[in-house]
Design goal:
Elements lengths: L1 H7 L2 H26 L9 H12 L1 H31 L13 H4 L1 H25 L4 E7 L5 E5 L10 E6 L4 E7 L1 H8 L3 H28 L8 H30 L1
Antiparallel strand pairs: 1-2, 1-4, 3-4
Helix pairs in contact: 2-4, 2-8, 2-9, 3-4, 4-6, 6-8, 8-9
Length: 259
């Protein structure tokens, strides 16, 4: 195992770890965005609240989630560590910066730190509250024939052991589901303009971080070819640095201005 430790702690090994964890987190951004798009459905939060139950009860998803949390922390602190070691190796800056790297690559550490703060706020606002605090419950009654859904808020003190209580009434042709109303919590949180602005600014940080980070990860892994590099660059810019941050930023803006 000595060779593995030596390889991973080398200059190239450190960058490879950053690249691999970074690309995994890019995949997470896509999957998480697709799930959170349920917030835009006009169904009283039915799709989003049932999605939240699935994400916190399905064993495979739970394992992947905890691995993802660990990789987020590793990626953030490993990046700070690499930046610290680089500056330690060169304590005195150049009189004239001749580095050909862009402003994005030189700002990766500070952008990563901003995103780490954002994640702490995001997790405490929603993940922690969903798991460990008493949230309001909501009852959805779906007409199995028409697909219409009736939403009824449960009493303030209502609670249940399971995350989703479900019962089907074949005779009445209905299905009733009672779940925590995370949708309501999200909507209430994003009535705070300061929180909305913070989330939007954090998405700017995501954008700037990925403009350089996505393409750089492939280069670090040796996937740098005249035929494929332009495609990777465009994918990194248009999908990960533009569309995905816009998708995330649209959520708080939607609740603040339209709900």
């Amino acid at each position: 195992m000595g060779w593995l430790t030596k390889t991973l702690t080398s200059s190239i090994g450190k960058k490879v770890l950053m690249a691999l964890t970074g690309l995994f987190l890019c995949t997470f951004l896509v999957v998480h965005l697709i799930g959170n798009l349920q917030l835009f459905k006009s169904d009283g939060g039915y799709a989003f609240n049932t999605y939240a139950v699935f994400m916190t009860t399905f064993p495979v998803i739970k394992v992947v989630s905890y691995v993802n949390y660990a990789l987020i922390l590793f990626h953030a602190f490993w990046g700070i560590y690499i930046t610290y070691k680089n500056r330690q190796a060169r304590p005195v800056g150049y009189a004239v910066n001749k580095n050909s790297s862009s402003i994005f690559s030189r700002s990766m550490a500070i952008l990563g730190l901003i995103l780490l703060v954002y994640l702490v706020v995001h997790m405490s606002d929603f993940w922690y509250r969903y798991h460990y605090e008493h949230l309001p419950y909501v009852k959805y009654t779906e007409n199995l024939t028409t697909g219409d859904i009736t939403t009824t808020a449960m009493d303030e003190g209502y609670t249940q052991v399971v995350k989703k209580f479900e019962i089907s009434d074949v005779a009445a042709g209905t299905k009733t589901i009672i779940v925590k109303d995370l949708y309501k919590v999200v909507g209430y949180a994003f009535q705070n303009i300061l929180l909305v602005l913070f989330y939007v600014l954090a998405m700017f940080a995501v954008s700037f971080h990925l403009i350089h980070g996505f393409q750089s990860a492939f280069q670090t892994l040796g996937l740098n070819h005249p035929k494929y590099s332009p495609l990777i660059k465009n994918l990194g810019i248009w999908i990960f640095a533009i569309l995905i941050p816009i998708g995330y930023a649209a959520m708080p803006l939607y609740f603040y201005f339209l709900k």
